[in-house]
Amino acid sequence: MNSRQSFLAGMVTTAAVVMFYMENIFESPTVYDVKTKYVEVEIPAKKPNFTEEVKTISSSLNKSKLKHLLVYAFALCEEYQVPYTLVKAVIETESSWNHRAISISDARGLMQIKPSTSTSEFKTPGYDLFDPYVNVTVGIKYLKQLHDRFGDWNSALTAYSHGPTITDTYSSNYINDNFYVKKIKKVQESS
């Protein structure tokens, strides 16, 4: 094969790869399986208006940093398939958007993560939990981990608040109706 033929072969291969990816990028939200039946595909959440969201949040962070943090949290939520509104509700409930918050149980930062949890589960030292980006990252990953373990958000939220070990002993009635789950859902619905 001469250089011209090699060049043309490379161009054809590149065009085929580009066409393959273009088809996948622009395909409709409905896909067909091999039996030509419709398969539902979840459409990604609409990107929020972060500038407007910042106006509604009273935080220890300045408006610019808060907006950046919201964009960051939204991207993480998309990556880990954790509802963005749930994460915002947890932050509002746990710390009222105060990135320096410390509870009597030594939970820290926006999402009130205990240093023991961040170290054992995510190898993140407790002193890093005051960094809002670290805190939100650990919090979202922890919510995802709890959801994967328990299979639903009410149980994951109960475990987030009460601890995963004790949550194993709770009835489904308590899990679905406890004060923490009710509070998070109320805040989530209002946002």
What does this structure look like?
The chain has 191 residues and is mainly alpha-helical. The chain has two domains: 3-39; 50-190, Lysozyme. The chain has ten helices and two strands. The longest helix is centred in the first third of the chain and has 23 residues, at 3-25. The chain has helices at 3-25, 50-56, 63-80, 84-95, 115-122, 132-150, 153-162, 164-167, 172-177, 179-190, and strands spanning 31-32, 38-39.
- Biggest β-sheet, characterized? 2 strands, antiparallel
**Overall spatial form:** globular
**CATH architecture assignment name of the largest domain:** Orthogonal Bundle
The count of DSSP E runs of length 2 or more, i.e. the number of strands, is 2
Spans of at least 5 consecutive residues whose pLDDT stays below 50 are: 3-43
Strands side by side in the biggest sheet: 1-2
Q: Compute the CA-based radius of gyration.
A: 22 Å
Structural class of the helices, strands and pairings? mainly alpha
The total tally of domains equals: 2
Share in helix: 55-70%
End-to-end separation in angstroms reads 64 Å
